């Protein structure tokens, strides 16, 4: 009898371990649950002031903060929050029309992803009509385009291509949203082709990315944009898409490197490979989003990466203050071939650069 019980116990060990692995991204201590953390962050957004781009238009950090709050409202069926977010958007399209971004830059065209998210939630065609031109003009070459921009377009890429790693979320997200809104594969296909270009040009053998070809530093949030962009594509790309294997390989290589560079605390540094650099929240949250998604969608081995993703989430939450603002967020950062420049970047509290990636993590943790 004793031998039978021992044998049964041995057989159960793998199942117990697997059960524990499955729960790593479900069961959290009090104060760390994605639904409760998400409510603090999502309800913080409607009360925040606009974060403008060059003082003129709704910025990409605010756009993504807004979209993250919408995803939370949709996922949790929070009609009160959804109503508040729609009311704020209605004001943007009536009293604040001057804040709607123009369609002439990668950091501005991404705005289309927001009305397209609203369209998918509400089915209000006004949102569709507002959002789609932002996706379409990203490939429609303007008359005043430069020679280099026309050359990119002639090769089938966006005329807004500039080979900065930030672009691979800015371009990917509006094209992905257009694909979800229309079902037209041209949007996701061209986003995938663009991603392969950036992978081939910027990803290094260790899986990380230079900020740009002439800036050989592994900036945290910049790499986060790549991680999140690949994640968005892998969520949507059909299995038979010709570019999917290349993107998946780039993603897997990056995730392995991120596992190796994760700090003992669970965070990642402003310059990922520099041990004496400071821990930065926005990039760390973007990496966490990519890791959580990879584990839950089966792109990453659960036993190897679920503990990495959980460790990151548990490290990130304490950076949220009592107001629902995230601390230690690197400010907006242009490329510069100067390592000290990245060390010295100011750190903000409540900056939308940091708020939105946390909401992406929450979305990934809550989705089935």
Automatic annotation (TrEMBL):
Superkingdom field: Bacteria
Keyword presence, Signal: yes
One Gene Ontology molecular-function label: hydrolase activity
Record's signal peptide: 1-20
GO process annotations (BP): carbohydrate metabolic process
Keywords: Hydrolase, Signal
Pfam families according to UniProt: Glyco_hydro_88
Xref: PANTHER family: UNSATURATED RHAMNOGALACTURONAN HYDROLASE (EUROFUNG)
UniProt-recorded name of the protein: Glycosyl hydrolase
Organism: Pedobacter ginsenosidimutans
Lineage: Bacteria, Pseudomonadati, Bacteroidota, Sphingobacteriia, Sphingobacteriales
